[in-house]
Write the structure tokens for this entry.
Amino acid sequence: MSVWGKMSGAAAGLLVGGPVGAVVGAVAGHFLFDRETDPGVVFTMAIIALAGKMAQADGIATEQEFAIFRRVFGVPHEEENNVRRIFDLARQDIAGYEAYAGQIARLFMGNHAMLEDILDGLFEIAKSDDVLHPEESAFLERVAEIFGFAPNEFRRIRASHFAPELTDPYVILGLSYVADEDELRRTYRRLVRENHPDSLIARGVPEEFIKLATDKLAAINTAYEKILAERGLK
């Protein structure tokens, strides 16, 4: 069953607490996020809830924002109403986005890679019009901070999404300009390993979101090749 199908029952028996849970509870009635929950469902719920909050932050019409979400992640027509309800409830909820981000950070405590995957999903939505609006940038930077990412890590993640071919390759890889060849190759191998589609699937990211990995991996490879060429390395 696809992750969208699992969510339609809000995962039929999933119990959710906190602000995210209040949204899901309003849709399905009886949910609780905990560490035993299908991580793919939790990941998807986190993306939808924060996307709804980001829609509220940038002030763009909800219809346009949800259409972008649906297109970026390929929500099937038969599941559109269920996903839309969660998106709208998150957007309208009086709880601020920081409360949502804080709950998600706790749910994925110790799983830094999954939190980065969630940020990647939000950046995919933000970049759909090829512009990172100031409101979106501030929203994403604060969410990254709540997730535990340092400012330089946030810059690295952002650089891999927005015009990576025009961005400093050292920023994309999170390297200093004086990094030696060993650090360059070691960092590159780590980023490739962490962002390979198989790695995302292994840590619970649904297959419907694997585009996150392929786009980011392409930016990482391009940055690495640029640095090799600049340094005359192979």
Observations:
- Residues 10 and 28 are 6 Å apart (CA to CA).
- The chain is about 70% helix and 0% strand.
- Residues 10-16, 25-35 have pLDDT under 50 and may be disordered.
